Automatic annotation (TrEMBL):
UniProt name for this protein: FNDC7 protein
Domain Fibronectin type-III: 1-88, 89-175, 176-261, 262-346, 430-517
Source species, domain of life: Eukaryota
Species the sequence originates in: Orthonyx spaldingii
InterPro entries: FN3_dom, FN3_sf, Ig-like_fold
Length: 708
C-alpha cells in the first residue's frame, strides 16, 4: 500500500461540497476523500489534488481525512482537518409588481446572519444596485419597464463568510401601450386596434367590452383585429402588454360606437294616391336616416332625414323597392330587409266607347302599367253590368236603348288589387228603333212618313228601298217626306235614328207601293166610222187598264189586261176627251189624261156618178156637214183619178176619164192630218163607151154592178 498522504488545506466554497488540497504520494493511483459528521460520512474517489467531496449539508462541520490508493491497497487515513461548509444560497422568489419595480423574497437560510442582493441590467447597461439586509425580502424600484435584470443573492454567517449565491433573471413588466388607434370596418362589423410597441412586451391583449360582453384579442404584434362586433353598440377598448414578468396596466379605454343596426318595423303606406309614406322605428346610435326608393324602371330617389319617416311621390302601376339605412359617424347600417311596394295600377286611359247597336256598346282603352285584369262596371238603366277580362276591350250587351249609362273601367293587380279612384265615363246608348206610325200620299210621287220620336237629339233617316233604287229623307222631328218616288214601284220603308251616341237598329219595314205609271204613248186609230182602236205603251206597275172616250153624245169605255182596246159606238165627226186609268195588282189607280180625240168626219152617202160630155165623170154625194171638204177617188186599171170640190159643194168632176173600165169609187172627208180615211164605203162603177147613160153599180164582193 502507498504512503499516507498529508492534507495541506481544506475549505468550502459551496454549501454542498468541501475541496481538499495535498501533496502527491508516490505510487498512489487514486485518493479517497472522506467527510464525516458523526455517524454520517461521505466518501469520494479522486485522481489527484485538489479533490472535492460533494453531497454535503450546508453550514455543517465535517472532519476531513484523505487516504492514498494503489493496486496494493489503501494507506492509513491522513490526519484529519475540520472544515465547515458555507451557508446555502437563498432560494429567491422574484416578480415585477409594476413596470418599474422588481420584488425579491426568499426563505430564511440556516445559520445566516444576513443577506446580500444585487441587481443589474442583463445587457450590462446602467449601474448595479446592491442591498444588504437581514430581512427575507426587498423591492427594487425606479427600474426600466420591460427590461431584463439579473438578480444575485447570497447569505453570510456571523463571521461574514458568504455562502452560496443564487442568480435569477427577471424582466420588469411592460409599460402600458401608447398611441392606441381604432380602425372600424363598418361593412364587416369588425375593428382593428393598433398601438406603438412597448419595450419588453412579448404579447398584447386587447379587451373590447360592452356591458357584460367582453371580447379579447391576443397577439404578439402591434395590432389586433376584433371581429363579430354588434351594431348599435358602444364598446370600450383597452390594450394590456404582457411579458414573462406580468402585465402592464390597461390603457385608458377608447370608446367605439359601431354603426347603427338596420331600421326595423318598416311600414309603407299610400296615404293618398301618388304619395308613399315610409316609416320605421328609431335605431340606437342612429344620427340620421337615408331611405332609398328604386322603381322597377330603374329610377332611384332617396330621402335624408333625422326623423323616422319620409314622404315620396309615386306613380301608379309601379313596383318600388325600398330600403332604409341608419347612419352615424361610424358609417352606414347593414342592409336590412328590402321591401317592395306595388302601387295600384293606373286607371285606363284613352277610353273610347263605340255603339255597336242600340243595346250594345263596345268600350276600349289603352293598356296601363301594373294592370293584370280590368273590370268594367256599368251603372244605369235597370241594373248593373259587369265585365272582367285581361283584354283592353269589353262589349257591353243587353243594355237599354236611348239610356244614359255611367261606365267605369277599373284596373286590378294581384299585388295591390283595384284602383278605386278611376273616374266614370258617361255614355248614352244609341236611340231606340223608331216605330213607323203612318205612311200617306201627299201628292204625285210625294210620300209622307210619320213615326214615333223617342230621342230629341236624334236625326232620323227614312229609307225607301226597292228595285228602282233608294230614296231617303231626314228629319229631327217625327215625320219627313219622300220626294220623287217613281210610279209603279214597290218599296220597303224603314227608319233609323242617329244621335251622337250611335245609330239605332232599323225600324220594322212597312211596305209601300206607288200608283202605276201612266203609259207614255197612247195612240188612237179609227178603224171604222164607229170603231176606234186605242193602243198604249205599258205602264210600269199596271196590271189592267180602263180607257174612256167621252163626248156630249156619249161614252165609250174599255177595261183590259192588254195595252190596246177597240172602242165601238163612236160617233163620227165628234170631239172626245181621252182618259186612261192604270190599275195595279193591289188596286192602286193612276188616272191618266191625254190630248182630246176627234173622230173622223162622217163618210158621205148617196155617192153617184154621172157621165159628162167629152169623157168626163161627175161624182155626186150627199153631205151632213157642209163645213167639211171631201175627196173623190176613182181607181181603175187604166188609171187613178181624183177630184176635190170647193168647200160646201157635194160634187166634183173628173175629165178625160177612159171609158171601158171598171172603177172603184171612194168619197171620203178630207182631213188636215194623217192619211186619207180608208173605211168609207167603196162603190164600183163600169164606164162604158156606148154613150148610154144607164149604168150598173157593182159592190165589192157582190155581183151587183152598176153600169153607166
Amino acid at each position: 500500500a502507498p504512503d499516507t498522504p498529508v492534507i495541506d488545506q481544506a475549505y468550502s466554497k459551496l454549501s454542498n461540497s468541501i475541496t481538499v488540497e495535498w501533496r502527491a504520494v508516490p505510487g498512489a493511483t487514486n485518493y479517497m476523500l472522506t467527510a464525516q459528521d458523526g455517524d454520517f460520512f461521505v466518501e469520494s474517489i479522486v485522481k489527484n489534488s485538489p479533490g472535492t467531496v460533494t453531497g454535503l449539508k450546508p453550514a455543517t462541520l465535517y472532519r476531513i481525512t484523505l487516504r492514498s490508493i494503489n493496486s496494493g491497497g489503501k494507506s492509513q487515513p491522513s490526519p484529519s482537518k475540520k472544515v465547515k461548509t458555507v451557508l446555502a444560497a437563498p432560494i429567491l422568489s422574484v416578480h415585477s409588481p409594476s413596470c418599474d419595480s422588481i420584488a425579491v423574497s426568499w426563505k430564511a437560510v440556516h445559520m445566516a446572519a444576513g443577506f446580500s442582493v444585487s441587481l443589474m441590467r442583463a445587457d450590462g447597461l446602467g449601474r448595479i444596485l446592491k442591498e444588504n439586509t437581514t430581512n427575507t425580502s426587498l423591492i427594487f424600484t425606479n427600474l426600466v419597464p420591460g427590461t431584463l435584470y439579473t438578480i444575485k443573492a447570497y447569505a453570510w454567517n456571523a463571521n461574514g463568510m458568504p455562502g452560496d449565491d443564487f442568480t435569477y433573471n427577471q424582466r420588469t413588466s411592460p409599460n402600458a401601450p401608447v398611441d392606441v388607434k381604432v380602425a372600424f370596418n363598418s361593412g364587416a362589423l369588425r375593428t382593428v386596434v393598433s398601438w406603438m410597441p412597448t419595450e419588453g412586451a412579448l404579447t398584447y391583449s386587447v379587451t373590447v367590452s360592452s356591458g357584460l360582453l367582453k371580447l379579447r384579442c391576443n397577439t404578439s404584434s402591434s395590432s389586433c383585429m376584433v371581429p363579430s362586433l354588434q351594431c348599435s353598440s358602444e364598446y370600450y377598448i383597452s390594450v394590456t402588454a404582457y411579458n414573462d414578468a406580468g402585465s402592464s396596466k390597461p390603457t385608458d379605454a377608447v370608446s367605439l360606437k359601431t354603426i347603427p343596426c338596420a331600421p326595423v318595423n318598416i311600414s309603407i303606406e299610400e296615404d293618398e294616391p301618388g304619395h308613399l309614406l315610409v316609416s320605421w322605428s328609431s335605431v340606437s346610435f342612429g344620427q340620421y336616416y337615408v331611405v332609398f326608393v328604386k322603381s322597377d324602371d330603374g329610377l332611384e330617389v332617396h330621402c335624408n332625414t333625422s326623423c323616422t319617416q319620409c314622404h315620396f311621390q309615386s306613380d301608379c302601376g309601379f313596383t318600388y323597392f325600398i330600403s332604409v339605412f341608419a347612419y352615424n359617424k361610424a358609417g352606414q347600417s347593414p342592409l336590412g330587409d328590402v321591401f317592395n311596394y306595388t302601387t295600384a295600377p293606373c286607371c285606363p286611359s284613352d277610353f273610347r266607347a263605340v255603339s255597336m247597336s242600340s243595346d250594345t256598346v263596345r268600350v276600349t282603352w289603352a293598356p296601363v302599367r301594373g294592370a293584370d285584369l280590368y273590370e268594367t262596371r256599368v251603372a244605369g238603366g235597370s241594373g248593373v253590368v259587369l265585365c272582367r277580362d285581361t283584354a283592353t276591350a269589353c262589349t257591353l250587351s243587353a243594355l237599354e236603348c236611348n239610356t244614359p249609362y255611367s261606365i267605369t273601367v277599373y284596373s286590378f293587380s294581384e299585388a295591390r288589387g283595384s284602383n278605386s279612384s278611376c273616374a266614370p265615363h258617361h255614355v248614352p246608348t244609341a236611340p231606340c228603333s223608331p216605330e213607323i206610325k203612318n205612311i200617306s200620299k201627299e201628292g204625285l210621287s210625294v210620300i209622307s212618313v210619320q213615326w214615333q220620336s223617342n230621342n230629341e237629339e236624334a236625326t232620323y233617316l227614312v229609307t225607301a228601298r226597292g228595285e228602282a233604287g233608294l230614296w231617303h229623307c231626314t228629319s229631327t222631328g217625327n215625320s219627313c217626306t219622300l220626294m220623287d218616288l217613281p210610279c209603279g214601284s214597290a218599296f220597303s220603308v224603314s227608319a233609323v235614328a242617329t244621335s251622337p251616341a250611335g245609330q239605332s237598329l232599323p225600324s220594322y219595314s212597312v211596305p209601300l207601293e206607288t200608283a202605276p205609271c201612266c203609259p207614255n204613248d197612247l195612240r188612237l186609230t179609227q178603224v171604222t166610222q164607229s170603231v176606234t182602236n186605242i193602243s198604249w205603251s205599258a205602264g210600269t206597275g199596271a196590271q189592267t187598264y180602263v180607257t174612256t172616250l167621252e163626248s156630249p153624245k156619249g161614252q165609250a169605255k174599255c177595261h183590259t189586261l192588254h195595252n190596246y182596246c177597240l172602242l165601238g159606238c163612236i160617233t163620227c165627226g165628234t170631239n172626245y176627251t181621252v182618259s186612261l186609268r192604270a190599275i195595279s195588282e193591289t188596286g192602286l189607280t193612276s188616272s191618266c189624261t191625254y190630248q182630246g180625240y176627234s173622230s173622223s168626219a162622217c163618210c158621205p152617202s148617196g155617192v153617184k156618178l154621172y157621165r159628162l160630155s167629152n169623157n168626163g165623170i161627175r161624182v155626186f154625194w150627199r153631205v151632213s156637214d157642209e163645213t167639211i171638204n171631201y175627196n173623190a177617188d176613182l181607181r181603175g186599171s187604166k188609171g187613178n183619178f181624183s177630184c176635190t170640190p170647193s168647200l160646201g159643194l157635194s160634187h166634183c168632176d173628173i175629165t178625160q176619164i177612159p171609158c171601158g173600165d171598171v172603177y172603184t169609187v171612194v168619197v171620203a172627208p178630207v182631213t188636215d192630218k194623217g192619211p186619207k180615211l180608208t173605211f168609207c164605203p167603196k162603190k164600183v162603177y163600169s164606164v162604158t163607151c156606148s154613150g148610154s147613160s144607164v149604168g150598173m153599180v157593182i159592190y165589192r164582193g157582190k155581183s151587183n154592178t152598176k153600169h153607166i
